[in-house]
């Protein structure tokens, strides 16, 4: 579209009589009617250029806080989801301790170990790994529950649970 307008202006400029350059103007300056040689030159000359972004320390700190705040929300959401999911682990382990309690203790320990991690890539990797582990654990519990329900309906199931 811009090139069509430039072509139209080029046709108009050739049909208009040219004014002789003023002797007072230096020879290296172009007059308005002479126009740019290329589209890039036209854009460079007439489009306002944005100054390079330079963040001062306060703006950088504010951006970091925003990132940390959103990451903090994600971490807290994952932790809450883990605590909620542990309700479904109602059978005891080999020591007689409920799996729910074991999982909650391990989750708390892992979150405390990573509490002061500052590297965003490491935090993202931990979040993704935690979310994947939670999803796969829930899928396994659901599958075990389905198997137990199938056994109970067929009359071959023993006393509840859904354990290991």
Give a nutshell description of this structure.
By secondary structure, the protein is an all-alpha fold. Helices cover 61% and strands 0% of the residues.
Structure report:
It comes from Turnera subulata. This protein folds into two domains: 2-46, no CATH class; 57-153. Helix content is 61%, strand content 0%. It is built from five helices and no strands. The protein has helices at residues 2-15, 39-46, 57-85, 99-113, 120-153. α3 (57-85) packs parallel to α5 (120-153). Mean pLDDT is 76; it is low at 19-26.
Topology diagram in text:
Layout: H1 2-15, H2 39-46, H3 57-85, H4 99-113, H5 120-153
Name a few traits of the molecule.
mainly alpha, 0% strand, Complex1_LYR_dom, Complex 1 LYR protein domain-containing protein, Complex1_LYR_LYRM7
Query: How many helical stretches?
Result: 5
Q: What is the CA-based Rg, rounded?
A: 35 Å
Q: Roughly how many Å apart are the termini?
A: 69 Å
- Tally of domains: 2
What is the overall pLDDT average?
76
> What's the assembly state of these chains?
single chain
Biggest pleated sheet: none
Secondary-structure element order, N to C: HHHHH
User: Which percent range describes the beta-strand content?
Assistant: under 5%
- Count of distinct strands: 0
Helix content: 55-70%
Q: pLDDT under 50 segments (min length 5)?
A: 19-26
The coarse overall form would be elongated
Structural class: mainly alpha
